[in-house]
Amino acid sequence: MGLIKKSNEIAIQRNVKMMVYGQAGMGKTTLALSAPKPLLLDFDNGVKRVNNSHLGEVGIVQITNWQEVVTLLTTEKADLAPFETIVVDTIGKMMDFIIAYRCGGRNPRVQDWGMINSDFKWFVNALSELGKHLIFVAHRDTRKEGDDTVFVPALREKSYNAIVTELDLLGYLEMKNENGVQKRSITFDPTSRNDGKNTCQLDGVMWINNILDQNGQPTAPNDFIQKRIIDKYQNMIQVKENAQAEYNKALAEIKEAVELITDAQGANHFIEHINDYKNLGNSVILYARDLFSAKMKNLKVKYNKETKKYEDAA
Fold it and tell me: Known Pfam families for this protein (predicted)?
């Protein structure tokens, strides 16, 4: 099989890689844990700030050094089987652990960043190969662009682009006014005031309902990311996969139909029905015409321009 693929032949990634960032106290970790079957890699000792009602089925690993992560994803990766999502809290602290692993107690040099960013990419790829969703939690920082201040994830500049490139979604969590009421919202669209990335065609602004009462007791399940983001993405993928299956089925049917043509009668019948596949796009019609033309040459069947029919050779 060749290396060049058509759109209907490529493998579609089903796991989501995303980052949520915002200022302290916004409930970033709780939001990240609203993904399906999460395992929390707690680099920042942040689990103590999460309401216990949101930790019932959550697995937790309190990370103290990067070697623990390497061990988890190599010799102990079977332990990840029960979990569908890996939550990293925070990615800034995780990158500090990678730097310490590679550089010891010194500051990283220019030549160190290639290996540091490679370690991050290895981490992402290892979890993607296991089919896990991956959610990074990040603090908020600012970047000056002329006279404007842009809110961005708190990451070192040397690794920022390498990290964001690996993501499907980058969401900014903040408080906004909705009809006179302050509510949490998240946007994945990049704007003049925040960085973002939205490859899953999510709404521009998504409102996040409060799921705790004044006594800290749950009033609804913590499932925002699962219901509003991952389920929507999975549905979008399913539509694409259904379209691909229909496309591939049509190609197989066309190939079989052309192979069964033995004379002009069969050729005319095929041409009468070729437009039945028009709804699948021009590429299917072109594929059918190419196969058909080659078959006509082999059969020595001729096209009569006056009758607009194929005729067997005399």
Answer: AAA_24
